[in-house]
Structure formats: C-alpha cells, structure tokens
Amino acid sequence: MEFSDRQKLIIEIVKAHEPITGDNIAAKLNLTKPTLRNDLSLLTMTGVLDARPKVGYIYSGQTIEPLLFEKLYTKKVDDIMIPAVFIKQDTSLKNAITDLFMYDVGSLYVVNKDKKLVGILSRKDLLRSVLANNEDDIPVAVVMSRMPNVITITPEETILTAGNTLMQHQVDSLPVVEKGTNDKIIGKITKTRIMNHFIEEGIKVKAQ
C-alpha cells in the first residue's frame, strides 16, 4: 500500500517522538487533530502505528500485505452489508424490545408508511427509556434518534470508510442508504459484520 506524503510524515514524527499524542502530532504539522483523524485511523488499522490509551501513538512497523489490504479495507460496503430490521413509528417499546432480542440485533430502523428512514432505535435508547418510564406502551417515535441526526453511509463507500465512521461517531451500526438519498435503506453495516469480514479473510489467507 502506498501512503500519502502526510501519512509518511506522521510515521516519521511518531518514530522520532514516540510515544506521542494525536494532539502533539497535529501541533507539529500545524494542523488540527480532527484533520488527521482519517490518517491516524488508517495507520493504526494497517498496523504501522499502535494507539495506546493515555499514552499515545508508537511505531509498530507492522504492515499489511497489499493484496490482503485490498481484501480487508477497500472492498465496498455493498459487498458485506447485511439486511436491516425495520419497525414502524407507532411500535410500542415493549414490542420493540421483543424484536430486538428476537432478531438479535443492536439497532432497529424506524420507517414511515413509505418505508423511508425516520429514526433509529438502539439498545441504549431502549434501556434509557425503560429506566426512565414505567410504561411499555410508549411508541418508539418518542425515544428514537431522529433524522437528520442519524449517520448513514452509501453502498459504494469502502469498508475502511465505514469502520472509521463507526469509530468517529461511536455507534454500533450504520444504515446503508441508496446513493443520492439519505432515507432509502437497502441494508446496514455493523462493527460485528466488519470484524467477521476480517476474520473470514484472515482464515482464507492462513489456509493458502
């Protein structure tokens, strides 16, 4: 894999000053930490850098073979996305909890009568609502995270982009929407699905 000039410079900075925090790396480049987020994520995911909580980044020197990198990260979301579970806005919390465990998913996608995405209901949302309310017949529309505050992704984006988006926003799944829309769901991508993809490809490589 060929790194960008900025990524190469980040590697050299870490080599010279490890351990070093993201803020200090950004300062040395006269940039903000958010500007470097994708670069640092890529270098960490490929094993070149190792991110240690409360310590900073260190140089590990490990690299992923180009062909394996292609299989792991540059595949499209469309290649590994899975079906989403939908519920209606007037579904009760009690029924939503039943659906959540019946389908063994972390999030339910709330749609309107036209099957357009209007919100997302996560396990955290359900737990919060159950603890705050004694009534289990409240409709999910009252407690769900509403559009346009739901982060989505399109099927032609890469798995690397999906993983980075999941980390940035600290969510477990992303609705995959048809390109050119933000509410026509065609699937979902989750942290678990991405991890399974990595394991599957690793097993294939090991078997060769």
From TrEMBL:
SMART domains in the cross-refs: CBS
Domain CBS: 80-138, 144-205
A GO MF term: DNA-binding transcription factor activity
InterPro entries linked to this entry: CBS_dom (IPR000644), CBS_dom_sf (IPR046342), CBS_domain-containing (IPR051462), HTH_11 (IPR013196), Tscrpt_reg_HTH_DeoR_CS (IPR018356), UCP026546_HTH-CBS (IPR016842), WH-like_DNA-bd_sf (IPR036388), WH_DNA-bd_sf (IPR036390)
Keyword Transcription regulation: yes
Keywords recorded for this protein, A-Z: CBS domain, DNA-binding, Repeat, Transcription, Transcription regulation
UniProt cross-references to PANTHER family, sorted A to Z: CBS DOMAIN-CONTAINING PROTEIN CBSX2, CHLOROPLASTIC, TRANSCRIPTIONAL REPRESSOR CCPN
Record-given protein name: CBS domain containing protein
Species assigned in the record: Tetragenococcus koreensis
